[in-house]
UniProtKB/TrEMBL annotation:
Bias-annotated ranges (Polar residues): 245-257
Native source species: Trapa natans (Water chestnut)
Residue span, APO domain: 123-209, 300-385
Name recorded for this polypeptide: APO domain-containing protein
Pfam family, any one: APO_RNA-bind
Residue ranges, compositional bias (Basic and acidic residues): 37-54
PANTHER family: EUKARYOTIC TRANSLATION INITIATION FACTOR SUI1
Residue ranges of the region described as Disordered: 36-55, 237-269
MF term (GO), any: RNA binding
Superkingdom: Eukaryota
Length: 407
């Protein structure tokens, strides 16, 4: 009561002086240091399931771009699209990047599968929490079914590679420009593959199992509808258009597979070398995905984890998240981020895998890191500069019997 009276008196004084005084939730947030690119604090807690994801691009910017496109369509109803990949052609400088991302993903999964044989991975039975160590932590953050009866404690079991890093799936598009949307009746016909793999295919990787149409000439836009005159002319002349054009190398995938096999010899590697190579593959994959997503559009649902790579989102009525009744099961599509394509699972950092489990009363002293980084660091890899502050390596937590002595 005394503190409230003091705060109220300060507010009255500020009102008389003409100043605004308020205590908001933002005043107690962790400080940010934009001048230091290597500083990164703990990730924010997960949002509520009924809350929509934040827009990467502000809504005002999206509305302005939509108005500009509408005005340009009125001034020129029939126009040839010039910029790839909107015109159906590949972006030449992103073709080698897509192959590097494909190889890095394969190398990452292979490295993680070997590292889990030496470093134990724990996962909660009721939620998505993951822990790297021989014994699971005691921090009460479980949000699974009946977590209230367990005081939010986790029930640990053995985990695997897909618990460390996961890749959401999306529908594969044969023609990303001519037929960009998957209907509800096509949901069982069109295969689903990891979104990062679909992103690599659309940007230049050729896989025999998942073919993709390659054009040699740009398409036209007539009042917003995509028309491919080359395909119409080929059908009229009775000619069959080639599925792969000259702008995508035909034997890139075969050479990439050979390079991937030769880069991992059968000779046994040390745990440190394996950890460094796995961590380098992860960073290379993340950098490549960020670069590809600057040109190739990826969509995600604003309420669930569904993603779709292509100019538009699909029309499959399968959303079961908040407010799906008002959308008749359709997804609320918005621009996706790199975290929607690559699921970063953050884990608590442990200094000693064989030490005591992390205590719930000392959780403010512990740091976090992506599960891939935590796994590779315990394998012998050096700690990346951008995650040193998040892992709180310079903080020494007190002992369990010293918790009450800490202010």
């Amino acid at each position: 009561m005394l503190a409230r009276r003091i705060l109220a008196s300060f507010r009255n004084i500020d009102r008389r002086l003409g100043r605004s005084y308020s205590v908001a939730a933002a005043d107690f947030e962790f400080p940010t240091y934009p001048d230091n690119p290597h500083y990164e604090d703990l990730p924010r807690p997960s949002r509520s399931k009924s809350e929509r994801k934040p827009y990467p691009t502000p809504m005002k910017v999206l509305i302005r771009k939509a108005k500009e496109e509408r005005e340009a369509r009125k001034l020129q109803p029939c126009r040839m699209l010039e910029k790839p990949p909107d015109n159906g052609l590949l972006v030449p400088q992103l073709i080698p990047v897509s192959h590097r991302v494909y190889r890095a993903r394969e190398s990452l999964l292979k490295g993680l599968s070997e590292l889990q044989q030496f470093i134990p991975i724990q996962r909660c039975r009721f939620c998505s929490e993951v822990h790297i160590g021989h014994v699971g932590h005691e921090i009460r953050t479980c949000s699974g079914p009946k977590s209230g009866f367990r005081n939010a404690t986790h029930v640990w079991r053995k985990g695997g590679v897909h618990d460390v890093v996961s890749f959401p799936k999306c529908f594969h598009l044969y023609d990303r420009v001519g037929n960009p949307r998957v209907g509800h009746d096509e949901r069982r016909i069109i295969p689903q593959i990891p979104a990062i793999l679909e992103l690599c295919i659309q940007s230049g990787v050729d896989l025999q199992k998942y073919p993709s149409k390659r054009r040699s000439k740009p398409v036209y836009s007539i009042e917003g509808r995509i028309i491919d005159f080359d395909e119409v002319a080929a059908q009229a002349d009775g000619m069959e258009e080639e599925e792969t054009g000259s702008n995508a190398p035909q034997d890139c995938f075969s050479s990439s597979a050979e390079e991937l096999d030769s880069s991992h010899p059968d000779s046994a590697k040390s745990l440190k070398e394996l950890s460094n190579e796995t961590l380098d593959s992860w960073f290379e994959m993340v950098r490549g995905v960020k670069q590809i997503m600057e040109s190739y559009m990826v969509w995600t649902c604003g309420y669930c984890s569904e993603v779709q790579v292509g100019p538009k989102g699909h029309k499959v009525r399968m959303c079961k998240a908040s407010k799906h009744q008002s959308r008749n099961g359709l997804h609320a599509w918005q621009e996706a981020t790199m975290y929607d394509v690559i699921n970063h699972n953050y884990v608590w950092h442990v200094k000693d895998l064989k030490g005591l489990p992390l205590d719930n009363n000392l959780k403010r002293y512990y740091g976090k890191a992506p599960a891939v980084v935590e796994l590779c660091v315990h394998g012998g890899a050096s700690v990346p500069e951008e995650f040193k502050s998040m892992m709180r390596l310079d903080v020494i937590p007190p002992d369990r019997d010293e918790v009450d002595l800490v202010a």
